[in-house]
Amino acid sequence: MENLNWIYILYLSVGVPASINLFIIARKDKSLPVLAFGTSLTTFLCGVLLDYGFGDDLSLAREWGDLIAITTALCGLFIEIRESKPVFARFPIYLTLLPFLSVLFYPLVIDSVVIKNLLQLIYQGGAILVAVLVISINQFLHKKREYLLTATIIFLLAYISFWFFGDFESFPGKDVAKIVFSIGIIIASIGFKKASESFN
Fold first, then answer.
1. pLDDT of residue 199
2. How far is it, in rounded angstroms, from Cα 152 to Cα 124?
3. Chain-centre distance of CA 181, in angstroms?
4. Distance (Å, rounded) from C-alpha 25 to C-alpha 136?
5. The pLDDT of residue 44 is above 90
6. Integer Cα distance of 156 and 134 in angstroms
7. Fewer CB within 10 Å, N side or C side of the chain?
8. Are 182 and 11 in contact (CB under 8 A)?
9. How many angstroms separate the first and last alpha carbons of the chain?
């Protein structure tokens, strides 16, 4: 962990202002999806902080933090989809919480590295795919979503780098993914602010 301290510091220095920004926007606009994204980022940062402070002793806390973060982000995307529909066509709000079912079953696979990684791979990929679709449609309909679309593409690049190029000795895919992910957080934070300004 010693040689990666700078990555944890990068996450915290980028993520804390971004999460504060998201909570401010959520409060101002009374936006449930933005609140979910802010909560997701905060949960992720809590896992990073515990992992950075305590190392291997609390690596399980980091795993749970990552899982709850991606699950909350998926819920935020489902809420965004729900709110984009006409009132008569909206599905019940409790269905947006379906991703949290994985948290209930996670203890069953907690000892299997392969299944845990597969779960993260599917959840992260699914979240990025849904985000690209939702934000592309919003960009087409409402404009002012360029930053969010750019951030989503950057998250996709980080995802590809981490999961598909992360284990090559000649290419530090996981480190590159973490840096790219941090850039995505910054751009997404700006994007939510721009979208909020265009909404008001």
1. 65
2. 12
3. 9
4. 21
5. yes
6. 14
7. C
8. yes
9. 44
pLDDT band at 183 (very low <50, low <70, confident <90, very high): very high
Rounded to an integer, the average pLDDT of 39-49 is 93
88 band by pLDDT with thresholds 50, 70 and 90 = confident
What's the 3-state SS for the chain? CHHHHHHHHHHHHHHHHHHHHHHHHHHHHCCHHHHHHHHHHHHHHHHHHHHHHHHHHHHHHHHHHHHHHHHHHHHHHHHHHHHHCCHHHCCCHHHHHHHHHHHHHHHHHCCCHHHHHHHHHHHHHHHHHHHHHHHHHHHHHHCCCHHHHHHHHHHHHHHHHHHHCCCCCCCCHHHHHHHHHHHHHHHHHHHHHHHHHHHC
The model carries a pTM of 0.88
User: Token match 């301290």: residue?
Assistant: 5
The upper half-sphere exposure of residue 70, i.e. CA atoms within 13 Å in the direction of its Cβ, equals 22
Q: How many whole angstroms separate alpha carbon 4 and alpha carbon 114? A: 24
172 φ, ψ (degrees, to nearest 5): -80, 70
pLDDT of residue 52: 73
- pLDDT of 167 > 60? The answer is yes
Mean pLDDT of 93-119: 88
